[in-house]
Amino acid sequence: MKVVPRIVAYSRTNLQRYRAKRLYNSRNQVSNSVPQEDLATLVEKLKRGIQFEQKKGLQNWPGQNQIFSDFLSDALDAVLRHRGLGDRESFLRLSELVKKSKSYSQMTEDMRMSVLSDVEKMLCHIEQGSGKSVGYDGMECTPFVFDLEATGLSTKTSHVVEIAAANMVTQESFVSRVRLPDGASIHPDVEKLTGLQSDDFRDACVPSFEQAVSEFFSFIQTACNKRPASVPLLIGHNIVSYDVRLLHNRLQASGMEREQRFLLEECLFLDTLKLSRDLLDDAESYKLGYLYNYLTGKQPENTHRALGDVHLTMEVVNGIMQRMNIDDLRQGRASDLLKPYIISSEVIKFSHKSEKTAMALKEEEARPKKDVGAMLTRDDILNMDVAGDLVATEPESDPLLSDIFEDKRAIRLQTPVKEMSKVFSTADKKLLTQMECSTLKDVLYLFPRGYLAASIGKFPQSDIEVDQAIVLPVYMEKVKVFRGKFHILNASMRCLDHDMVMAGKPWEGKETNPVIEYKAFRRGRSAGWAIANEEKRLKAMGNFFAVSVQVTVSDAGTFVIKEKTLDFMSLDSYVKLPKSDIFLRAMYPQKARISAQSVSDIVSKALGAVNQATSRLLEPLPSNIRQKYSIGRFYDSIQEIHRPSSIAQFVHARASIAFHELFFMQLRLLCRSKVSDGDYFEPMSNFERQALATKALKFPLTNDQERALKAINTLFSTTHSSSILLQGDVGCGKTIVALLAALAVVGNGKQVAIMAPTEVLAEQHLRSFEHLVTEASKIPGFTQPKYALLTGSTKTAERKAILNQLESGDIDVLIGTHALLSGPVIFKDLAFAVVDEQHKFGVEQRASLLSKANPPPHMLHMSATPIPRSLALVLYGEMECIEIQEMPPGRIPVKTSVWTETSTTRDDLIHTMKLEIDSGGKCFVVCPLIDADAENGVRSVLNEKERLSATKELPSDAIGILHGKMTGPEKDEVLTHFLNGHLQILISTTVVEVGVNIPDASLIIVEHAERFGLAQLHQLRGRVGRGTRASQCILVTEGDAERLRILEDTASGFKVAEADLHSRGSGDMIGTAQAGQGTLNSHRLWELPRDAHLVTQARTAAQDFITQYGSDVHAWPQHASQALDDLSGANLDINELPNFTLQ
Questions:
Q1: How far apart are alpha carbons 463 and 471 in whole angstroms?
Q2: Beta strand 450-456 with 582-587: parallel, antiparallel or unpaired?
Q3: In whole angstroms, what is the distance from residue 79 CA to residue 102 CA?
Q4: Which residues are registered as beta bridge partners of 165?
Q5: Sign of torsion, CA 244 246 247 248?
Q6: Adjacent-strand bridge partners of 1033
Q7: End-to-end CA distance of the chain
Q8: How many C-beta atoms surround the C-beta of residue 774 within 10 A?
Q9: Which pLDDT value is given to residue 876?
């Protein structure tokens, strides 16, 4: 009995909780487990409980809210299950209230008042006895088991490829394949899992989605019409998280409103995943195939195909009903025992505008035991099966209208650490200085390196040899310290029973529980201080507390805590842990020789400061944007990243922070694209000259070219200058689009500048423009513009004449190289600037061209290096992105083959080159290095020149070299000789990647292709196939050839770029960004391609924000303008905005 005072001292909160529970039950004469009573009695008890809660002001003594939450959810559930409940509406409303009541204790006071108000209204509705009192026990239904197969796991972007259903009453079935839309394909992982092949779903005889779904709903409606009083009940495995959401999104995208209304308004849903989890406690997994084997004893066949899964699900449902001793569904009736699992579309809460962050998987199995105790990286968690709904963002008042943002004391992400003396000690500030953390954001962005997945409340097991990660309550039995040459601390902790702790009686039965040992060993000058500090830390927790540790079994059979894995929490915190089997504990990296524990402590202090300052924090995003895109609060999400309550919430939190970062990045990029109100630009309206030149073309424009030209003309018609990115594959016709756009500008009396990186390319553009206007001059009414070429090789006298005519306005179009940027080049009225191979020019050089006119001209950036749109919005978000993906008809595709280095490869290559040269072709040979001395074993330009010149099969005097160390004139000379035929083989580095046009080149060999990115190899491939000869590209590799196979399969640069993004990630691609964009890769949680959909959503949200508040940053609400600095990821002075700048 002597232990009782100590329990009171060290576990007062739990004792108060236990006593409060007894007092509450005695006052209300109810228990947490409400018995089956008549409906009137249940309603009366609920009303009395609500009155008692309201009397206590919704703020009862510690633990009381959780007690009431349990009572409320249990009582509502009892009403829900009652046979005399009433109409269908009551059932649906009560189902939603039961779901809300389970999180009652976690709600704010306003939210709890709202819930209680809804409950009171519901009780009045029941007392009035509205509707026919039939309840779901007597409801007629027509149950259909259905299943979808899709191209991927996303419910937003995936396409349906198979749909099947079976009527449980009549045993009739329906199945249909679905034709893939253009451009869609089945993900390789899905193909491997299901055996489905994309080509099987492209045939015109396969029904379209609209046809297949119409037949599916006709099958359902026909069956229901035979039983007029019945309701269609759709049954499936994980359908709530995947199948129903996917079907709804596809219906919405296809504009099938009638079918969508039928799904939302007429159908009810029963998810067998939820049903089996609750009713089959002894099942080791809830994967469909396992459940089928578990209930029938048979091995599943034909899984992961729609009709096969329908049959498996039907057997699972029959097995569960047999266990429950019911057979109602097969008779067309919904059993009373099934009522809690039947939901409507109102409960599912479809997301109409945005993709659900945690992708719902087709099936979900129980978490593998091997995950417990494993160190999980962020990617590991994001790739896990995460089923079920995320916690929705609660409605709130718009922070734009809150007086709180006028509080000058409000802290923000950029608050300096040195000003937070009440949060960080002097020692903490020294550590933060070492870690280069100067602001609150720097501290909050010290994200964990991984997470330790620990089981909650389970005793360690002696038969498990690997480390066991656990979180459980303990009782400190003894702490002993030995001091001497070595300083040792020994501590023994007795494990406590989880259920007893939750019941408020942690001391009961502890004598027979296992003991875990903790030993700390130190030596050296600071050993005594370290052990004393560890002893102080242990004793400060008292006798009863909880630990999160990794435990291993010693040779003696005892449980030993691994040092540096011990972390403490109070019993009160333990009781409040989420009701889950897994606890994710953040593990931090060492930083600047500072221990992981110190980093964790500092982050905890920062999180504590954020919690305490909630009322003074500037929430970055307006509530309407957060609600529209299902985004969580920024600071709540930061808390979840560091202290995740569940895997689903972690995934949602990471996506929320990523959306914040991308939103403000897009906001800044959009501001860059605006000009100040004073920079009015006269809109263009005369496009007659462009139309005549288009008519004169000997070939029709492709659809993509027409769309691109129309988009550019639309931008010309506005009052502000535009920045445009025109990208497409080599040979897609970007140049003709740019030249036709230039003629439109000339037709409006303005001047045009066309800038190329090399003289060879500039001369090529001159010839193209000359040919265009010559042909157009043959058409009556076309006036030929005046044009000139200006490069570094232009003679002085000619240069002077060109500059004079340019300044007077006599020259309409000036084509040239960097020479256009020189000071003496003055335009009279420059309105349009074209930059070819735009990545060859620096930011300052492009800005210099813009400065040639005031207001700045329209600017068209052309790139033959396609990048995915999501990445383009990040790198070039200030530009209008226009793509040309369609190739002109008649172009001969380049045959690409991957060769793995063998003993005969060299001879085969020389033979192939000889055949090409003898037939009149020319060859490129691309090497990764200039000289082999830089890296042994790698082929280089100089060595290959020497080796190929020594062969008898190839002409040594026709072999040239090209690399980056050569001067500009030397490069131009080599390319001229190659173009004229003096050279037939050109050995080069990647300097030939862009801007080189050799029509006779028909063979390119890339050595060590594994060293190049896919997009880069695609550009190199574009050096051949530019004429009438059939061409080929040979990729020679000593490494992984599989990555390169996509180049054999497709000629589309956009598909190659997507594959490159998936294989390399966005980090490498962003790392090569130009000046002014290097900061995009720092301090960010978003990543591509995983967050491609978030980039698009953030772009749309930012555009809506600009539409509402304008582009003047200083006129924005305070929280938004500050967050532009805090979260955009770019170090630009906001005072520069919205002036047009590329820096």
A1: 19
A2: antiparallel
A3: 15
A4: 146, 174
A5: positive
A6: 896, 1004
A7: 75
A8: 11
A9: 56
**Residue type at position 861:** H
Rg of the chain (C-alpha set):
35
**Alpha-carbon torsion angle 84, 87, 90, 91, nearest 10:** 70
The residue assigned the tokens 């296809």 is 254
CA distance 435 to 1125: 22
Distance CA 718, CA 684 (A): 8
Helical pair 688-696 and 734-747, crossing angle rounded to 10 deg: 140
**1138 in Cβ contact with 671 (< 8 Å):** yes
DSSP 701: P
Give the Cα-Cα-Cα angle 903, 1024, 1029 (nearest 5 degrees): 100
Output the CA–CA distances (angstroms, integers) from residue 297 to 171, 288, 635, in the order listed: 22, 13, 50
Nearest-5° Cα angle at 747, 745 to 751:
45
pLDDT < 50: residue spans in the chain: 1-36, 60-64, 83, 86, 130-138, 351-371, 385-409, 675-678, 934, 1067-1083, 1130-1143
Pairing of strands 468-482, 487-495: antiparallel
Q: Report the C-alpha gap between 228 and 1127 in whole angstroms.
A: 57
What token pair was written down for 425?
A: 């000690």
C-alpha span between 1119 and 1122 (Å, rounded): 5
Paired sense of beta strands 723-728 and 880-884, if any:
parallel
Burial 726-738 (b: 16+ CB within 10 A, else e): bbbbbebbbbbbb
The strand ranges marked E within 28-70 are: none
- Number of helices (H), then strands (E), belonging to the chain: the values are 40, 28
Helices marked H in 282-369 — which ranges? 288-296, 306-324, 345-348
Phi, psi (degrees; rounded to nearest 5) at 280: -115, 70
- What is the spatial distance between Cα 985 and Cα 1024, in angstroms, rounded to a whole number? 13
CA atoms of 849 and 830, how far apart (whole Å): 10
Distance of alpha carbon 901 from alpha carbon 1003, whole angstroms = 18
Rounded CA-CA distance 51/30 in Å is 14
CA distance 203 to 180: 9
> Can you give the pLDDT at residue 971?
85
Q: pLDDT digit string (tens) for 436-483?
A: 888 888 888 888 888 878 888 888 887 776 778 888 889 888 888 888
E strands present in 349-463: 375-376, 450-456
Asked if 872 and 1088 count as a contact pair (C-beta separation under 8 A), the reply is no
pTM above 0.70?
no
Tens digits of residue pLDDT in 993-1006: 766 778 889 999 99
* Tokens coding 514: 């296992």
Alpha-carbon distance of 1009 to 1043, in angstroms, equals: 10
Assigned token pair, 175: 């199945």
- What confidence score (pLDDT) does residue 10 get? 33
Closest C-alpha among 21, 72, 65, 20 to residue 42: 72
Spatial separation of the C-alpha atoms in residues 494 and 459, rounded to whole Å: 10
Which distant-in-sequence residues (6+ apart) come within 8 Å of 706 by Cβ? Answer: none
Q: What does the angle CA 623 – CA 626 – CA 630 come to, to the nearest 5 degrees?
A: 140
Q: CA 1071, 1075, 1079, 1080 torsion: positive or negative?
A: negative
